[in-house]
Amino acid sequence: MAIKRFALALLLLFFIVAGCGNRGIPTIKQELLDNKLSVLMLTGASMSAPAKESVGNALQQWRDANFIAFDWIKDLNQLDETVIAKLKASKYDYIYVIGNELFPSANGVIGQGLSMGKWTLLQSQLDTKGITSQVNEQTSFLQIDSQQIETLKNKWIQELLAQNVVVEWVTRSDRPIPSAWAPSEEADHIVLLDNNEQWFQQLSFQTRQHHSSTIIFYTPVDEAQVQKAKSIGVSVVDLAGAVSAELNWTQILDNRLAIMKNSTWKKGGTIYNEQELKELKMK
Fold first, then answer.
1. 96-110, 180-194, 213-227: which has the minimum mean pLDDT?
2. Which of 87, 58, 69, 80 is nearest to 28 (CA)?
3. Is the N or the C terminus of the chain less surrounded, counting Cβ atoms within 10 Å?
4. Whether residue 212 sits in one domain with residue 137
5. Is residue 109 domain-shared with residue 179, that is, in the same domain?
6. What's the gap between Cα 126 and its chain centre?
């Protein structure tokens, strides 16, 4: 009789344990597993340490809170064989490329059709070399508003001229100086680089002749030309590289997560919004 009572108690204990086994333990719903997204994150070597940290934190949050699988290849100078091998070996729903320097090689890889995933290219800094104008039109592309940059530059120049600063301008014929800044009677304050091997000698002469205190490169030039102009001994401003931008990567990546969750990705160019672009200023 005692054996029967023991067996019955053991059986009741088994049913109690079986019924309570999953209580208090979070489980992943099957539909989440079935719809699990995968991401390939590619970041350039030029990214700052704080930006990399934001990317790393975002990826972990995507995985832990939203069950998004990811691979991350960092410190790239271009999309190399390591990236191509990843694309061939794995299926990714979304591919993110962060870093201006990666865009040319990304265009080539995208053109190979190695992945059916949705590509998003994100500008990481101001574009002084025209790289972003070559982005593949089949991607989603986030960039800093060029009109906002030009407005900032124009305001800075107007404020400089309002102080009666004497300026020598360096540009090319296809990028003329606005007449409001250099009227026709001041044409001798402009040096054109087009087929002008004597541009530096001309600039030096004009700077001394006009007692100018500032030289402004109004067209993109290389660093060697800027350094050469600095040897004249006055303030030199390379307008193409005179603006700095600070991006809010936490907000940018939060917004990418929302797009993935809501399936609202679309190709084409978009500018960073007010929350994503922290600050735009003259250096």
1. 180-194
2. 69
3. N
4. no
5. no
6. 8
* Rounded distance between C-alpha atoms, residue 78 and residue 67, angstroms: 29
The answer to whether the CB of 123 falls within 8 A of the CB of 98 is no
Q: In total, how many domains does the chain have?
A: 2
Cα 147 to Cα 212: distance, rounded to the nearest angstrom: 29
Are residues 250 and 236 part of one domain?
Answer: no
The strand pairing partners of 120, in sequence order, are 96, 140
Each residue's pLDDT tens digit, 187-225: 899 999 999 999 999 999 999 999 999 999 999 999 999
251: three-class secondary structure by DSSP: helix
Q: Is the C-alpha dihedral spanning 169, 172, 173, 174 positive or negative? A: negative
Residue 179, CA atoms < 13 Å, CB-side half-sphere: 2
Q: 15 vs 21, 26, 182, CA distance in Å?
A: 10, 21, 90
Whether residue 233 sits in one domain with residue 274: no
Domain final residue, candidates 210, 226, 241 = 241
Using pLDDT thresholds of 50, 70 and 90, give the confidence band for residue 18. very low
Q: Are residues 181 and 271 in the same domain?
A: no
In a domain, 218, yes or no: yes
Residue 250 and residue 130 share a domain: yes
Element housing 213 (H / E) = none
CA dihedral 33, 39, 40, 44 (to 10 degrees): -150
Q: For residue range 31-90, what is the model confidence (pLDDT) as tens digits? A: 444 568 999 999 999 999 999 999 999 999 999 999 999 999 999 999 999 999 999 999
Which residues constitute the domain of residue 205? 147-241
Residue 17 lies in a domain: no
Same domain, 41 and 131: yes
Go through the chain and tell me how many residues it has. Answer: 283
The residue whose two tokens read 């940018």 is 252
pLDDT at 240: 87
